[in-house]
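Sample entry follows:

_____
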Amino acid sequence: MLTIRLAGIGRAKLPLYRIVLTEHSKPIKSGYQDVLGVYNPIKKTVDVDIEKVHHWISQGAGMSSRAAKVIFNATGSEQVKKFIVYKERTRAPKKEAK
C-alpha cells in the first residue's frame, strides 16, 4: 500500500522534512516514488502540491497522521482531514501519600 508520510532530511537542531509518497513497508529514509512537498517546522512553512496529494489519495494511497495534520493546517483540505487520528490522553492515577 502506498503511503504519504514525512521523511526527515534535516540535520541536528535544524529539522526539515519532505512529504513523500512511498511504500508503507519501506524504511523512512529509503527510496520513494514521488516528492509531494517540503515542511520546515522551524519557520512553520509548508510547500505542498495539493493536487498531487488529492490525486494519490483518489488512487487509494493512505496517509500518516502527522503528514495529514501538517497538510491540513497548511491547506484546510477536507479530503486530508479524514486521515488525522486523535488520541485521548490518559493519565496514570496519582499515588497517595502515606
